[in-house]
Every structure is written in C-alpha cells, then in structure tokens.
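Q: Is it fine to ask for two folds in a single conversation?
A: Yes, each is treated on its own. Send the first.
Q: Here.
A: Result:
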Amino acid sequence: MSGRLLAQTLRWQRVRLIAVVLAGIGWGLLIPIIYGAFSDVVRDLVDSGAFPAELMNFGSGSLFTLPGAITLGLQHPLAIAMIGIFAVGASATAVAGERASGTLEVLLARPISRLTLYASILAALLITVLVVLVAILGGMIGGSALQGSTDEVDLGQMPLVVLNGFGLWAAFTTFGLAASVSFDRPGPAIGLSLAYLLANYFLEILGSLWTDAAWTQDYSLFHHFNPGGILTGDLQAGDLVIVLVAALVPIIYAIVIFPRRDLAAPA
C-alpha cells in the first residue's frame, strides 16, 4: 500500500467527508429525541389496534425501544445515503473515473503497481466509511445522554456495533471498488453498485413490512446488522461472519481481475 496515495485520496475526499460527518452527527442526535417524543404515541397506536405492529417497524428497527430506534436510524434512507456517498459513489468512480478521464495510465506510469493502487484506494475509502459510521453512532450516544436514556442501552457493546456496521458497509465498499476496476466508465460501475445496495435494502424492508415475505430479510446484508440487538446483549456471531465474508469476496475478485485487465485507450 502507498501511504502517499492513501493520504492523497483522503485529501480528495476531505471537504465531502467533513460535511457528511457533521450531517451524520446531527442525524444521530435527532434519533433519541424522536424516540423520546414519539415512542409512547407509537406504542399507544399499536395497543389500540389502529395500526398493525408490523407497520410500525422499519427494517429491523422500531420506535418501541431506544435500541430499536438506533437500528431504525442506521437503516433510514438518510443514513444510508450519507454512508453510501463513499461506500457506493466514491468507490464505484475511484478507478473507472480515472480510466474515463485518461489519468489512470499516468498514475500507473509511476512506480506503483495495480495492487498497490487498489489497496491504497480501498484503505482510504474504508477509513471514510468508518468515520461516517462512528460519527452517526457518536451523535446517537450524545443524543441519548442529552435525553438521559443511556441506561436503556449497553454502551459496552458499542465496539461490536461499530465492527458489525463496518463489516456491512465494507461489503458495499469493496463491491463498488470491484465494479470500478471492472469497467472503463463510471456509469456501469455506479449502476451495478447502486443496484446491489438497493436490492439488499429492498429485501430488508419488504420482509419487515410483509409478514409472508419475512424470509426475504435473511438474504439482505442489512438484516445482518442489528445494532439494537447487539446493544441489548443479543449478538449473533453469524451476522459478523456473513458481512465480513461479503466484504472479502469482492476483494478477492478485484485482486484477480484488476491486474489481468487490458486497459484500452480511453474513448
């Protein structure tokens, strides 16, 4: 891995990263506040029979408990969009964008191998994804402290939440970068990476809202990241294995494919 290329990649992302981190902290702060304001209302609606309990869930999260609200906040489209900026957008364009602009050849003309290029970009993107994830979780902890509700979660389990969440988003990041090294234009790489993310999200939401289709959740990577369960002491070791394997497979693919690719002249 090239430390210089790693640092340069992080510098290219710094303005966007700062903006997303600030937004992530703000979003995290809101979740405990929303939970405190609406959890009793949601519970009363379910108890009254006005709405089925299934419709009060969103993915694996809900507003019935603070851990459930934390899960909901991390599976909300806004949080996914924040992390997806780097896990999907930046990863899918990292190599294919350089290829389309004709600058990849200039970069590879330096004493740097393709594997070093790949490893450096991957490390930088994983760092940005981790920083955004930690920012959102940090906001949630801060919001819980402001609400005086930290006793509802086991904060000692937070490192496992970070590990599981990082594994989930590493899977999307490595997939996006694998797509990026496979195409000469960013369009197909972005489309494939986004489709992969949306397919997983669709299966998770479909299974949570439609009881007969609950089995679809098992095929979604999002379902294997349940911070609410971890914070209540219900860690499923299999979930960690699944997301980490999903992150490793695209890395193996990229390591095999990228060095073997012929780089045609850019259009």
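Q: Second one now.
A: Result:
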Amino acid sequence: MGNNRLKIGEFSRLCKVTVRTLRHYEKIGLLVPEIIDRYSGYRYYSVGQFQKMQSIMHLKELGYTLEEIGAIWEDESHVPSPESLEEKILACKAELERLKRRHRMLRALTASRKKIKKMNKITIESLPAITVASYRAIIPSYEDLGRICCEVIAPEMARLGCECPEPGYCYTVEHGGYKPQDIDIEYCEQVTAFGAGIGNMTVDKTTSKGVNNSRPGSVAVSDIIKFKEIPEVPTVVCMKVYGSYDKLYRNYVDLFAWIEKEGYRIVGDPRANYIDGIWNQEDPDKWLTIIQVPVERI
C-alpha cells in the first residue's frame, strides 16, 4: 500500500478523533475510507481526506448537525450558504439567552441555599432554670480558657464532690462586654448534686455559696468555686460556631447584627456554650461552641 494511505488507527490519531467516530461517519456515509481491503477488512484513508475531516469538525463547532454537514458536502462548494449561516446565528442568540436565564437561576438558587445554610446555624430556643458551679477570673485570651478548665476548675469541682448531668452543660459569660483580650470571664457548669464530703447542699442566694443542710449554718468553703441559681430564659437566639475560640468574636458581631435585623433586643448576658473542645477533640477545627443570647421581641 502506498505511503499516502493511512490505516484507521493512524488516521484517527492524525485527526484527533476516535476510531469509533470514524466508523460511525463511515456508517452514515459522511466520511468513507478510500480503500477497504476485501480480504482483511482493513480500512485505509488518504491524506487528502484529512482536509474533509477538519471541515466536518469545524462545521460541528459552528452548530451544524452531521446530517446538515452531509448535505453541505453534497454541494460542490462544500461550504454553508449565507442563509444557513444566518439561521445558525439566530440559533446561537437563542442559546445565549437560554444560558443567561440558566445562569441567573443558578445564581439565585446558590444564594438561596447559602442563606438557608447560614440560617440553619441560627435557632431560637429556651433555657431551663439550673444550678451551676461558677468560677470568675480575668484571663489574657480565650486560649487560656482550656488550660484553666483542666488545671483549675475541674480539680476543684472534683474536690467539692460536684455531680454534673449527662451530657453536661457548661458556658461562659463575659462581664463588661465581649473583647478579645483581658477578658472578665465567668465559667459556669451545671450541677445536679454534691458529693458526700459536702452533704445535702442547696444554694444561698445571698452569698452564692453552697450551704450544707446536714450541718445547719455551715458553708462549703471554696475560694475558687461558687454556686449559683440561674433562672429560666424563655427566648434564646443560638448560633453554632466550629473552630478555635479566636473565631468567636466575629460570630458574636454577626449574631448581634442578625438579632437587630430580625426585630429582637438583647435582655441578658450572652453565653458561650461549649459542646466539643480541647478536652475531647485534638483538632481545633472540630471544636463546637454555641453562642446563646437571651432576647425578646421589640
């Protein structure tokens, strides 16, 4: 076979199309091999057919169907008529309008889903009345909170024999408003009972210290932990925050803006409720804090 003949695999690589595509074009009569060996079945294309293949690919890019391309190649000029090109221009304009409408719809749906996702982080709840063990101090930053919980608060609560409900509820309140440094913070953890070393304890609302009822008049002495009754909060706006505690400030600002926008006003100290933290998650990205803000409708 002459050097100007190409097997179907060679021709497909030259034209950058698949062998399957060439077989389909042969089947519909659009591009038939120049020679088909009757014994081997091998198909051979000429180098000159490469130009036709390029034309077919170009016309497909312009929006012509294979049937339309076949009709064009039946004409001697092998090029589309001006009327045909005008039709394709109009079809292209219509397709552009459809794509623009689809683009607007997709953007609107994306914005809606983002809004829903953001709203899913914010819920309206109520908080029951509870008794808490309280610790208050000024800390340099939120990074110190985990250390204080593990090294100071937890050992003292254990010494006092505090019992906490499952799965537990603890939070902090920032006195004097939220700020990123030198924070006047109060850590509170719900307690349900007190150990045998303290006895049957209630809370003295005057001193905010635990009073041992088994020994009238005696007080559970602790320079670190005080006990307080926290009243019920009927309406609380809650926001979930994942990540390290330095992210809380931005989320407080966003939540306060949402509260004002939705027609609420703040009527109590905001709480940061700690669900997951350094005590059970090594990865700070998995820490979960819920900001809880007491509110009422304006």
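Q: Anything structural to flag on that second result?
A: Two points. The mean pLDDT is 83. The longest helix spans residues 82-120.
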